[in-house]
Amino acid sequence: MIDDDYDAPSAGETASRPAPITPADVADASRLVSFGLQPKLLPARDAEYAELIRRYRDDPSFARLADAVATGLGLIVLEVSARAGMAVAADEESVFAVRMGEYSRRAASESTDRFLHGLAHLAVAALAFPRPEDLADDGYLGRITVNGVDAFVRQACRKLEQQADETGDNSDPVSDAPGLEAAWRVYARRSATGATKDARRLAGSTIGIVGKAVSFLVDSGFLQKTSDDSGGTYRTTARYQLQVRDMAGGAAMAELLALGVVPVSDGSATLLPPDDSDDLVTDAGLPFHSV
Amino acid sequence: MTTTAEAARPAPGPAADEGLARRLRALACTAPLHDLDNRKANLAGEYAVYGMAEVALAAIDLVTLHMDFDTGADRDQVLARLLPRVAAQAPEREWREHERVSKWVLESLINVGSVDRGFRAVYGTFGSDGSYVRRDYDFKLIEEVPGPDGGVYLRTTDEAVNVLVGALDTDVTSAQIAAEVKLEVLIRRGRLADAQLAAEQARYRTVQYSELLRRALEATRRNVRAVDWMEAVPDLIAEALEHIADRYRHENAILTNIRKARDESEDVEHKRRAAELVDIVKDCIRRHTQLQTRLLEAGPLFRAEQDRQAFAAPSARSGLDLYGQLLAPVLPLPLEQASAVTTAFFRKGIGLRTPYSVRLTDLVDVLLTPPVEREHLGAELPEPDLISTPDDSRFSDEQLEAALGLLDLPADAPRRLSGLLAEARRVDPDLPYLVALLAVHAASPGVGTAYRQGEERLLFAVDDGTRLHDDEFGGADLIVGSALLDAVGMAADRTEAS
User: Which domain of life is it from (chain B) (predicted)?
Assistant: First the structure.
């Protein structure tokens, strides 16, 4: 496949360029991709990696060769830079993609658990990049804690619960129609944490689910643990920002638009303070008003 | 159409139905408590003597009272405090069983067996179009929350508080004032039993109030723009500080009043109740202090976050607003649709994994390779090359011996330092320095150390104000002597002590 793609351009280039592509070049390009497949490895820590990155940026034909190798393996190149290394994402069909069933067996069979695991990932990203500017700014480092992510989603759920109460309608979900229940109820209902016999996190609790998401992201080279405070404190890496910005955010957005929900943004802050009419009442929580 | 619908409805209107639903939900909250007494028969053993609902209410009570500002109640503490009540119900049974019962009640209130760790009640209502709908009502009584130390703590939910004291779902501030006034009046009239009840209620409200502020402050930490720092939060802080100041005044006044009641009262029961009240009010004051510390931290926190978030140069690119455009719109969606969005995010946002692939020949090799035998003693250590360092001591061993010989004074005949120096100078011109050094060192002898080491005598030096007249040294002409230590007696003391 690589040959098919690249025979023609390389043949054309040989006329204008003195150096034809050799098997050694292909080996180097593949080596670069293999570095990219080790997400925790950074060019700053490995001289060979750094050299290949430099070559990718300086030599367009080598860059195209490396891109082709990646494409052939079912990878999408997000960025090649000294800070992120060769940041690649797995195509949905590729052997490198992670499936829900491999991630959590419960999530594969239970629709509520599937949602909770997905929401945990979305919430981690939302809290790691709370403002649109943070997601756009290459230099931004997000910081999250496991307990913080849980508290953040719970607060949003509480706000929705309050709104439901205010409208006065009976908002308790209808029995025997689990798919129609509002999503926030599923999260609010699940216990935040729980005591277990062996002092580990309760896997089914929301903190357990967020904790699993976070430790998986650490293995993906997206987060780095900085301390054990608040259930684990982490900071983001350049790769995570790229992955959220260029892959996940868009995919989720497209799905949302397909459902006919069009969130309109004028660029102003969406995490708004409560309006003046809100008195301080029990459970008001503040300040997350949804758009 | 309307007539058939109306005929099908037993209740006269939607409002009545709404009230019915509310009452059904309130009723549902008590169900787990009744359920305990029904289920106790299923437990292995004879547990009929225990009043499980009573234990459960006591547990809810304990958790509510021990909920702290930062965390919740400690599980072990709650269990420990619950034990006396359980024990009182069946004093002849052994404590292990009491412990089992309290644990069972607490775990049932958390509903440990279910994945949500909560309860669900199903009830029916009529919809606006007259159709009959069954609905799920999910609630928790005691929930487990994470503590700052990573432990799991217990908190009672609002539902549980309602079951416990009822009608607490009111405006915190006004209820607080009412409770205070009531308390003062009751104390003045000497009705301490009622006063205790009022004080406890006041404490519940204090807990609620701090819970509210805890959530608010936690939220400000996340996004500066999320909170109105121009008006809302400063107002909130000012209000809270005023509230605390006010409460301090009030509670201290109440404290003085109860203390008076406690000390003047003749009745033992009165005295006891007053003492309990003092404890409750003290606890209230403690909680206010905690609250105030939090409030003082709010300002610096805002400024630091403001620096980080607001003063950075704006980016040219516009990013996706993950909360506003994704998370917030997803949460109100029905589960099925929301799940489609989150799953899409999950698939694309999780990163990649390199699959393991094993070649059969490698596998065979790996499995057939005998484990590497480790050398039991490890590698041999190289013989260290030692080089003798040149002797650069200021004084030789002979000099030290001579100096110590000079200072080996009989216990009953101390000498002046000047005499010792003169004698030393006659032997060796360098020796006075060593003698002076040892004498100064003896000015504050380590009596305790000598005592512990079982020394029999100890050199000491005392300054009596006489000046030293010497060509080489200045300072005080110390009196140097030997003190005898009672080594045998000390040894005996030591063995006794150990």
Answer: Bacteria
- Which residue in A102, A109, A170 has the most chain B C-beta atoms within 10 A of its own C-beta, making it the best mutation to test that interface? A170
Please indicate if any CB of chain B lies within 8 Å of the CB of A205. yes
Domain regions of chain A by residue span: 22-90, 100-258
Closest residue in chain B to residue A178, using alpha carbons only: B335
pLDDT of residue A278: 33
B147 min Cα distance to partner chain A (Å): 8
Are A29 and A49 in contact by the 8 Å Cβ rule? The answer is: no
Q: How far apart (Å, rounded) are the C-alpha atoms in residues A66 and A63?
A: 5
Return the closest-CA partner of residue B350 out of A198, A253, A96, A17: A96
Confirm if B140 and B117 have CB atoms less than 8 A apart: yes
B156 three-state secondary structure = strand
How far the first Cα of chain B sits from its last, in Å, is 96
A251 vs B contacts (CB less than 8 Å): 344-345, 347-349
Interface check A1 vs B, CB under 8 A: no
Report the gap between the CA of B80 and the closest CA in chain A (Å): 17
- Four-point Cα dihedral B395, B396, B399, B404, nearest 10: 90
State the greatest distance between any 2 C-alpha atoms of chain A, in Å, as a whole number. Answer: 77
pTM of the shown model: 0.61
What DSSP character marks residue A131?
Answer: S
Cα B421 to the chain's mean position, in Å? 63
Higher-scoring residue by pLDDT: B5, B458: B458
CA dist A37 and A35 (Å) reads 5
Does an H or E element contain B25, and which? helix B14-39
**Diameter of chain B by CA atoms?**
132
B480 near B442, Cβ under 8 Å? yes
Looking at residue B322, the DSSP 8-state letter turns out to be I
User: What is the per-residue pLDDT for B175?
Assistant: 53
The single residue listed with the structure tokens 């994704």 is B326
Has residue A3 got a pLDDT over 50? no
